[in-house]
């Protein structure tokens, strides 16, 4: 279906006068099938056609940059798009902005971003999971375990939380708990 979506949006964008949303949707479809350079190009077209002030388009540029392995470009995009959000950024912005900071080795900023995210979206289990991973990376195992367990209260079916809790128990030499 994503390949069909690419064809539809490419046709729409080729007709001239296409909106930034058309190019954004094309980029999403291209990203879903792994055609990242083309997705980035479509997002740049969206930006040129009036989407330069659209935080969703600018956030998508950061996401595609990450998918292409360019954490520095992604971080730049997330930093600039932060001011474009009217109010708080989306959950997706927080997840990827934190990831970009972590990939650049700035775990303090990654943690700060994730903590800010949880103030805005306290019931998103994936945010708790990512906070747990960052805390574990910093060696704060008890805090990481608490964050992961908090995430389970919001989504007990999220497999990453169970895996990470098991890993944290193992690292704390709580082998019986890790097996559960």
Number of strands: 0
Globular, elongated, flat, extended or rod-shaped: what is the shape?
A: elongated
How much helical structure, as a percent, in the residues?
over 70%
In percent, how much strand structure appears in the residues? under 5%
Q: How do the helices and strands follow one another from N- to C-terminus? A: HHHHHHHHHHH
Structure description:
- This protein has 11 helices and no strands.
- It is mainly alpha-helical and 180 residues long.
- Helix 3 packs antiparallel against helix 4 (55-67) and helix 8 packs parallel to helix 10 (159-171).
- The termini are far apart.
- The model has no long low-confidence stretch (mean pLDDT 94).
Which key phrases capture this entry?
76% helix; 180 residues; mainly alpha; elongated; 11 helices
Structure in a nutshell:
By secondary structure, the protein is mainly alpha-helical. The chain contains eleven helices and no strands.
Topology (SSEs and partners):
Layout: H1 2-14, H2 20-32, H3 36-48, H4 55-67, H5 71-82, H6 91-103, H7 107-120, H8 125-137, H9 141-154, H10 159-171, H11 175-179
